[in-house]
C-alpha cells in the first residue's frame, strides 16, 4: 500500500514538473516573440522616419530650385519687355511735323500721347491747322510712321438765311473762349426738324470745345470741353 502511495506521489510530481517546464517554454516563446515584434516595429518606425526625412529634404530642394528658376526667368523677361523706347515724344512730334510739311508756329493745336497697338509702343500725334488736320501713328522704337491720315476742316460755305448769320454765330462762340480767334474755329450748318444749327469745334490752347448753336435764336444748345488728343 505504501509503495502505491509513493509511486502515485512521484507520478504527480513528475507531471507537475513537466507542466511547469512547458509553461516556461511557452512563456519564453511568447516573450521572445514579443521582443521580436517590438524590434520589428522599431525597425519599421526607423525606416519610416528615415524615408520621411529624405522626402522632406527632396521636397525642400525641389522647392528651392523651382523658386530660384522662376525668379530668375521672370526677372530676365521683365527686363527685356520693360526696355526703353527709341525716341521721345519731342522726336515723334518733329517727325510728324516734317511729314506734314507744317511749322509748329502755323498750328492751332498739337497733341502727342503714348499708346500700345499690336504689341508695339507707339506715339499718336495729332496736328491741327486752320484748314487741315493730320493724324500719325509713329513706332516708338525707331520712329517709323505706321499710319497717316489727313482731313480738310469743315467750314460754312453758304449763309443758311437764318436770323443769326455765320459772322454773328462766330462772334457769339468766340466770346466763350477768351484768346481764341476765327482761325481756331470750325463751323458747318446742320438742319434738324426744319431748323438750322451751327455746329463744330473751337481748338485753342490745348483744348477742344464742341458746340451747337441755334441759328434762329443764337442760343448755344450744346457745349462740351476736352483736352486735345483724348
Question: What are the key terms here?
Answer:
single chain; four-stranded antiparallel sheet; disordered N terminus; elongated; alpha+beta; 230 residues
Description:
The chain has 230 residues and is of the alpha+beta class. The chain contains 3 helices and 8 strands, in the order H-H-E-E-E-E-H-E-E-E-E. Strands 1-2-3-4 form a 4-stranded antiparallel sheet, covered by helices on one side. A hairpin with a 2-residue loop joins strand 1 and strand 2.
Q: Name the strands of the widest sheet in spatial order.
A: 1-2-3-4
SS content category: alpha+beta
According to DSSP, the number of beta strands is 8
Low-confidence stretches: 1-83
N- to C-terminal distance: 136 Å
What series of H and E elements makes up the topology?
HHEEEEHEEEE
Helix content: 40-55%
The Cα radius of gyration reads 50 Å
Please, what is the oligomeric state? single chain
Q: What overall geometry do the principal axes of the alpha carbons give?
A: elongated
Number of helices: 3
Mean pLDDT: 75
Described by strand count, sense and barrel closure, the largest sheet is:
4 strands, antiparallel
Residue fraction in strands: 25-35%
